[in-house]
């Protein structure tokens, strides 16, 4: 004899499980099916609990590596995408300005070279600043120091290498 009743245990809470079993048995469900499902559940539940604990421990130890991988990915994306985005934005601005000065066709052709030239000039200025041997503390590139002894602070003698 096969029954047409369905065993619905809801979300698995005690109250809904008992209601589901009661409804199943009242709809002419098989009590042996409920008993066998209960026995199988008792046998399987500790195994599921152990698997959940092992999974939690594995996630605990692997999470720093996953986070480090995400951080390295973000760093590389920032290092390589950000300058490209800067060039794209600069080319758009240069094109807009050149459109107001020249015609549309010429402005579109000159936008990227003008932006790339500006980026190269700025990089050259940074390299010149970093290559400068003697710099002061007033303006970058000028060998002028503010005399601090007039404020009561004495400078320590340092040897330039």
Which terms summarize this structure?
single chain; 161 residues; mainly alpha; 70% helix; elongated; transmembrane; plasmid
The succession of helices and strands, N to C, reads HHH
Strand composition percent:
under 5%
What is the molecular shape?
A: elongated
Q: What structural category do the secondary elements indicate?
A: mainly alpha
Low-confidence stretches: none
What is the count of DSSP helices, taking H or I runs of 4+ residues?
3
Distance between the termini: 98 Å
Largest sheet: number of strands, sense, barrel closure: none
- How many strand elements? 0
Based on CA atoms alone, the radius of gyration comes out at 37 Å
Overall average pLDDT: 77
The count of domains is: 1
Helix fraction? 55-70%
Topology readout:
Layout lengths: L13 H13 L4 H71 L2 H28 L30
What features would you describe in this structure?
This protein has one domain (14-142). The mean pLDDT is 77. The protein is mainly alpha-helical and 161 residues long. The chain contains three helices and no strands. The protein has helices at residues 14-26, 31-101, 104-131. α2 crosses α3 (104-131). The chain crosses the membrane at residues 34-58, 106-130. Keywords: Membrane, Plasmid, Transmembrane, Transmembrane helix.
């Amino acid at each position: 004899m096969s029954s047409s009743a369905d065993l619905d245990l809801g979300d698995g809470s005690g109250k809904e499980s008992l209601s589901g079993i009661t409804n199943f048995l009242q709809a002419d469900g098989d009590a042996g099916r409920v008993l066998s499902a209960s026995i199988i559940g008792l046998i399987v539940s500790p195994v599921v609990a152990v698997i959940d604990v092992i999974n939690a421990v594995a996630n605990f130890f692997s999470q720093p590596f996953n986070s480090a991988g995400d951080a390295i990915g973000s760093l590389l994306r920032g290092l390589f995408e950000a300058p490209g985005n800067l060039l794209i934005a600069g080319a758009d601005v240069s094109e807009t300005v050149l459109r107001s000065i020249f015609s549309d066709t010429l402005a579109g052709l000159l936008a990227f070279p003008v932006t790339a030239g500006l980026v190269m000039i700025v990089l050259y200025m940074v390299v010149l600043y970093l290559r400068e041997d003697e710099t002061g503390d007033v303006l970058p590139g000028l060998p002028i120091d503010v005399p601090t002894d007039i404020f009561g602070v004495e400078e320590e003698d340092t040897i330039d290498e």
